[in-house]
Description:
The protein has helices spanning 2-22, 31-54, 60-63, 65-90, 97-121, 125-136, 141-159, 169-185, 192-222, 229-258. By secondary structure, it is mainly α. Helix 2 (31-54) crosses helix 8 and helix 8 (169-185) crosses helix 9 (192-222). The longest helix has 31 residues, at 192-222. It is flat and about 65 Å long. The two termini are 26 Å apart.
Amino acid sequence: MKTGKLLTGYLKKRIAGIEALMKKPPGNFSVQDFHRLRLETKKLMAVVSMLHHSDRAHKMKKKLKPLRKIFDQAGKARALQLEVSLLQKYVSGQMLKTYQGILQNKLLKEKRKFSIVQLKEKDKLKNVFDFIISVAMKTRNKNAMEYLDHKKLEIYSFIKPEKLKTSKLHKLRKVLKTFSYTQKSLDLKNKGITYKAINELQVILGKWHDYRVLIGHLSAVAGKSDIPTPERKRIMKITGQLDSKSQMLLKKITAARKKTTF
């Protein structure tokens, strides 16, 4: 029962954070609010992944649908917020006026969609949370440890190959986050350099992913006919700068993953 109590205590904190944000009036979500909502939900979903792995008889996917809708739509707005923020580091003034205008319109559209999803789904969350808590209370330590061992093997499958495919990097980041959040939910910690290496690798992977996403978006925009030629040239120059930075991060990822052991 100790494991069940640890999990329910951890989950209730995550739930309280989500519920507080859901009480905010539609349209009043700030940049920080979207970040907090995504973070709290990711922590909760890491535990849910463990619960589902331990007892596949529970139809988790169907039960979690309202929360998933909120999380996914918040992610669309959050991704655009990050893109705007990252772009501002490389662009001064009105250098990319057309593209920045496109981004702001997209962001406004996704925030409006989020408000609609928030209104439609938030009253369904109590049943979702009650269900998760009821399953968590029955979790045994043996099941939790088996799940963590499963995640360690999954992490090793990514970091063990001499050359890690870039197509696998974002997945590796997700697995590392799930592993770390699950450990915290059980009040467990890696010790010394291993714990630091996992955190370091997650941070570098996050930065690399942000660069690659922005590079993809900029490249797509540069090919549009409604982008003025001078702006298209600036976009391609910035894309080159970001690509160089992402290549440097790849070298850091290689060094960091070699330190990651259990």
